[in-house]
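Complex record, two chains
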Amino acid sequence: MRDTTRVDHGIGLGIAAAYVAWLYRTARTLGFSRDESFYFDAAGRYAAWFHMVANHQKGATERATIDQFWSTNHEHPSLVKSLFALSWMIFHEKSKYIADSSQALRLPGMLMGGLALYVTYLFGVRLFSRTAGVAGAAALALMPQVFYHAHLACFDVAAMAMWALCVYAYFCATEKRTIGWALWAGVTYGLLLETKHNAWIMPAVVLPHALYTYRSAGPFKGIQRFPLPVLAMAVLGPLVFVGLWPWLWNDTEARIREYAAFHLNHEYYNMEYFGRNYNGPPSPPSYAPVMIAASVPTVTLVLFALGLTGFFRRLLVERVRDAAAFVRRLGPPAGGYFAQLPESGEVLLFLALMAPIAVFFLPKTPIFGGTKHWFPAYPLLCVFVGHGFDQAVRAFRSRFSRLQPGVPEALLGLAVFTAPALETAHSHPFGISAYVPLVGGTRGGATLGFNRQFWGYTTEGLASFFQSTMKPGESVYIHDTTMGAFQALQNEGRIRPDIRGNAWSISDADYAIVHHELHMIESEVNIWTAYDTAHPVYVLEHDGVPFISVYRRRK
Amino acid sequence: MTAEAAPETKEPAAGEEAPPASAAPAKVPALWVAGVVAFVGLAELVLHVGQVSARDPGADYATLAATVRKEQKSDDLVVFAPLWTDPVGRQAFGDLATLDRAAFSDVTRYPRAFEVSRGGARHPDLLSFRVEAEEHAGDLTLRRLVNPAPETIVDDLLRHVGAGLEVSRHHASGKDDVCPFTAGGAQAGPWDPSRPAQYYGCPGASVGVIVLVDAGYRPRRCLFAPPFGGSDALRLRFHDVTFGKAIVGHHGLHRVHEQQKTGAPVSTAFGVDAETPDGKIAERELGRVTHREGDGWTGFRVEVPPALVGQKGDLFADVTTAGASRYYCFEATTR
């Protein structure tokens, strides 16, 4: 185990900064999703409350005022939306440093993407090596579906970053055994609770891990022998959660129950999987592993498998040897029974990557989020990826020992990461539809009947069609895009402002669009009936796969 | 309060590799491990570049559309495979992609089909058709397919909508409340079936030709005929129908209703006006077909008495359900 140095923090922050810069530069070509439009709206409400507080306006903390501003979108915690609001206030409203309102709102989401890479790097350095840290962070950055979500003013990449941060803080607390790290673990758990309800499964990680790690005193003495980080998480977590969410300041218990009930009884949205539409239980248990195999670059998964081999050897193979020695009465193997157990850090990594995925083996867990709902697993998965890369480099170096230091890493890095980098760059701005070459890419995903998109975020891709075809003042039925998202596109000049968006009536519009998802054919055939044609005047495609069809109403 | 510091451990200097996570001596993997990793990375790269460099098939679709335009007859089917290419194909084929073809209800009526295939894919409904000819353009293949057992259509009930169809609420007492035929303009939102531009305005329901999504998420052009529920029937009286040996059709519910599996079945009774032995005209039921939720888009066949074959006359269809109204739709032909 090595500690991190200033150089490591510099490298980690450098990787994070490069990623955020990449996200920032590409964000303007990515249209707004349904959920972003709701969070833009919520952030606006929260910003108004922050203004009240900043201006010392009377009554800002009174229940009526809090409810007026914080009831909006209270099905999700407020931390991330508060960051959207503060970013908007600071970088757009006040300093005008960021011209586009949306860019300022999205910035915290991008920074969360950077944070996830930074923590991945640090974890890799602490557990394995600097090479492992860099490779792990690169692997996370070069996952196309993560890249898409990292642009957004949404929660999923924030949940991924906070999950990784919390696991890392907890890990450091178990290693260092200081009060400071234990308190920090508690605070980060509160931040995770305040980010998204993925936090609810964290006990399934830290409790078994604490049992494993604290099973014997080892070299530790006194208070260090007790799992203080777990205690801190149990106490500080809820305090931070409630403290940062004004909506919970009144009727706390009832509102926490309401929040929990919303997610425990969440309705099932539609999701296509192998050509079948799932909008209710039971969910297919194969969904998560198949989607991971189909959407995470294959070489990344190969490195992950390589990185896991040592862990599995210590976890399983050595146990088989122990058992064999016991059964044959040969006496304990060299070093005694249980001599080679997985390291505490490896066990934590494994638990923290499995817990978010394990939920998707439950038949009642909805699958409508596609891959994004198990993103918290990915930073931990990528630490093993980094270790796998490290192993491969060592193998390479052992044969070509005369090569200059860094050359094996560079050569292997090129061989390994060029494909994920190109896949990620190519996926933009159609990231949700990005499937790996092994399954045929975007076309292969369509042929296999995997989800192509959701949230109606691809509408910005029609800007040039609207520009060249629609007459001034004509209207378009915008299908899965919300009016909020459409208006945001118009406010920033991404789509012609004179076009009238229509969110509800196909028959009253001059044009109608349909975002292609399996269940969305319901809207498409309604267009056919109303417009008496099955002939789209334009189809937005990526890699030859249709994303949006545009129909013109017959006059 | 500060706890005791962690026991001192020897840590590598900055830039050094950490010792292996396990206490076991570090084992250097064999060279082939690095080789496999590099091979997978490069193979993925080659595959990716190959997949994204495929040429845009737009011009190829246009080439094949020109061929189909020259050769096609009105009773040819035109389809695109795999199914996800359908929007791209319909855009390229323009007016050749008619509603009848895009939302066909069955393939038995088509003696011939043009299948535009990308990457060699086949349309699942046409696997029994014989390939007569193929033409290639880039990655696309145009197949001219022949139906080994086409059925001849004598009359298509959907073509009677308008002047040749009368719709009414048929009470158990025998009284009919006529639903007026209206060209009131279409009404369509995202989810519930659209009201077409021309429709019969019944109380609480509009009857007309629409495209419905069936339980398998496939579009079906059919006559939307939601029953009223209870004892009253939605009566569709088709005038001057030329009878064949049978009435052959398909029926189904909108996919949402198909999946609810809580509603009552929908029955459609086909009948004609017939002379009784005492010289009066009375209704005579030819047959009744029933659709249950979950059945999906299914076919039906009602035999026609030999005396009627080749004759012209009125055919009525009474659509009923014991429960609440359903988004029911059917198509029928005489064959």
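Note: Chain B touches chain A through 86 residues (CB under 8 Å).
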